[in-house]
Amino acid sequence: MLPAATLRPYTAADERAAIELWRETWQEAYPAIDFAARVGWWRERWRGELVSSATIVVAEVTGTLVGFVTVNAATAYLDQIVVAPTHWGSGVAEMLLEEAKRLSPARLELHVNQDNSRAVRFYRKHGFAVAGEDVNARSGAPVYLMRWMQVANSE
What DSSP character marks residue 41? Predict the structure, then answer.
């Protein structure tokens, strides 16, 4: 059994590990794509878009970054949940998603590749529904817009 993960706010010192974790995770999900060649693009996007507009929370196990989530609470957009493949199925993704819901308690929206059945199942299991379809402008891949809405308490 893996040691329990803990959550904490992202700091600039986490950048290298977060970017490498992004590369490793996407490489595992899409082995035919060379994500090492995309690291420069991702670093620019990370610094220019996500760090400046999103709240980023990281998951650690014994001091090692094993996941992160990025949420723009102003737009309710969850851009990334990334979990190290060695921690898939360990509860880290659920912890990060609960944190995202805490950061944006009324609703969350995200895009997920339609062919990423593992991610689609995960989000459906946690209350997200398909709210539309689109195409990723960079990759041309078909994506779902998925949305989670807080259920009003009927008491």
Answer: H
Output the pTM of the full model.
0.90
CA gap 80, 67 in Å, rounded: 10
User: CA nearest 150: which of 111, 101, 83, 95?
Assistant: 101
**Nearest by Cα to 110 from 150, 69, 138:** 69
Distance (Å, whole) CA 70 – CA 108: 11
pLDDT truncated to tens, each residue of the chain (155 aa)? 567 899 999 999 999 999 999 999 888 888 888 888 888 888 998 999 899 999 999 999 999 999 999 999 999 999 999 999 999 889 999 999 999 999 999 999 999 999 999 899 999 999 999 999 999 887 888 999 999 998 766 55
How far apart CA 125 and CA 36 sit, in angstroms, is: 31
Strands (E), the chain: 6-9, 55-61, 64-72, 77-83, 107-113, 129-135, 142-149
Residue type, 19: I
